[in-house]
Amino acid sequence: xxxxxxxxxxxxxxxxxxxxxxxxxxxxxxxxxxxxxxxxxxxxxxxxxxxxxxxxxxxxxxxxxxxxxxxxxxxxxxxxxxxxxxxxxxxxxxxxxxxxxxxxxxxxxxxxxxxxxxxxxxxxxxxxxxxxxxxxxxxxxxxxxxxxxxxxxxxxxxxxxxxxxxxxxxxxxxxxxxxxxxxxxxxxxxxxxxxxxxxxxxxxxxxxxxxxxxxxxxxxxxxxxxxxxxxxx
Length: 233
Description:
Blueprint: H1 2-25, E1 33-34, E2 44-45, E3 50-53, E4 60-65, H2 69-80, E5 84-86, E6 90-93, E7 98-107, E8 112-119, H3 133-141, E9 143-147, H4 151-163, E10 165-166, E11 181-188, E12 191-199, E13 204-211, E14 214-221, H5 225-231
């Protein structure tokens, strides 16, 4: 019996030692930031003693913490409030040069869960966001050189886009393929540019402006968008 108790004590000690080692070598447990080698700044602030589960894709990170839900949410809000938000869903961290796609905090009773997903890019830069002024510039400062439909169709289309509602939270999947594409080639004083107007689902229109190899996009909501674009000749 004494041998069994001694064995249990040894196993418990080994288990505690392994647990302590696991916590000590964890990427975030003894730190108050989540930082990877790809980030250019000081990392994302988190609460100390937050354990990170390593992910195959380091742009996604899952954590558990014993800190209160209120504390974790405050840390999140303090961090997110300093970021630039675009499309109502992307949050650009200039210091680390990353865009936060998701930052979730939830309560599991004994501990709290955290999940952060980001990309090494600026989704809020002008490379992605097409200003609504593109229609004004097109109508007043551009000369149309080539179009894939009639000029009357282009005038009607531009008019509908002018009055359409802008979708501020578009998500363009990598495997997205349009069924209809209307091409406009135009020129301004500072050079040529191209506008592709495509269906983006049944009731949305995607506008992509390309100038000097830089793309900008905007998504507009328009009832029956795909069928309307198909009807243009």
